[in-house]
Amino acid sequence: MAEVQDVFLASFDEYGMNHFVPLQAQKAAKAIMECRTQALGGHTDVCTKCGYTHQSYNSCRNRNCPKCQTVKKEQWIGKRKQDMLDVKHFHTVFTIPSELNALVLQNQCKLYGLLFTASAGTVKELTADPKYLGASVGFMSILHSWGSNMSFHPHIHMVATAGGIAPDGRWKPTRGKYFLPVKVLSSLFRGKFLSGCRALYDRGELSLRGDNGNAVSRNAFSSLIDACYQKDWVVYSKVPFNGAEGVFEYLGRYTHRLVISNNRILSVDGGKTAFLWKDYKDESKLKETTLSNEEFIRRFLLHVLPPGFTRIRHYGLYSSRSKSTRLELYRSALDARFRRKPHKKRDRQLETPFEIVVRILGRDPRFCPRCGSLLNQEPLARASPA
Length: 386
What we know:
By secondary structure, this protein is of the alpha+beta class. 38% of the residues lie in helices and 20% in strands.
C-alpha cells in the first residue's frame, strides 16, 4: 500500500535541490523518511517454540508523520476525558479569506497565534455579554492549515460548552439551537483579526513580499486589509453534540489529524502521486486527483508548523489554571456527572502507551500470534548513515 513516506523517499532529494526547504520542514521530511525503518533501529521478535520471527522498527514520533499520531491521539483524548464537562458542546469553525493566505504563510508564527487570540477573544466577549449568554464557557481550539486537497487554508476548529458559569455561580445554558449568531461571530472575528494584523504591521512584526520577492508598500498592505474588511467572513457553526460522547468522537477525528493520512494515498508511481480528497463544494463527494511528487511535497510541507508552536489550546472553563479547584465548582454548578469513572483506583491512572497499543491491535504484542508463547526480543542495530 502506498504511503506519504514513499513520496518523500522517491522525490525529496530532488525537491530539496530545486527548492528552499526551511529547517523545520527538513526535520519533518527526514523523520517521515526514516520512520519505522532500519535508520531508527528496532528489534526482532523471535518465538523459540514455533520459529515465528518478525522485525519491528522504531517510530520517529514526529508530529508531522502520518504513522505516529494514533497513540498520541488516544493519550490526549484519555486526559481530556478526565476534565470534560458532560454537557452539550458546539463545533464552530473560524476561517479567513484566501486573500490573506500569502500574508499568513510569510508570518506563520505571528498570524497563527493571532488566529487563536482573535477567535478566542470573539467567543469570550460575546458569551460574557448578557445579550447572548452572560457566562464563562469552556472551549478548545484546534488549528488546521489545510483544505482536503492539501491546499493552504488556515482555520480554527473550536469545541465550546453549550453554556457556562454565570457571575452568581449558577450554570447558565445557551439559548436556541446554535451557539451564537454566526453573523455577529464573523463580524467581530473579522474586526479582531484585521486590527491585530494592523497592530503587528505597525510594530514592524509583519512582512509581506510580492511574487517578485520585494516587500510590498505600506499602501499596498493597507489596501489588502481594507479589501478584507469589505468581505463577509465565514464562521460556520454546527448543531450541538449530545453530551461528552459526541465530543470525544469529534476530538478523535480532528485533534491529531494531519494534512493527509496514508489511507488516502492511492498510488505513488512515475513521479506522480494519486490520492483521494473530499470536495465540500460538491456535496462532500470523494474525488481522486494526481499531483507530481514535487507538488505533493510542496503542499505537504506548507503545513509544517513553526518549532514549538502549540496547535491545540484550552480556554475559559477548560484552561489549565486552577483546574482541580474549578472542577468542584463546575460539579456543583452543573449538578451533573463528569466523565470520571466511579472506580477511583481505575480513574487514577490513564492508559499507558503500551495499553493503548494492546487495545488497538486487539492482542498483546509480547506473545506469539501463532502459538501464544512469550516472544524473545533481539535488538536491531541502526543503519549507518550513508
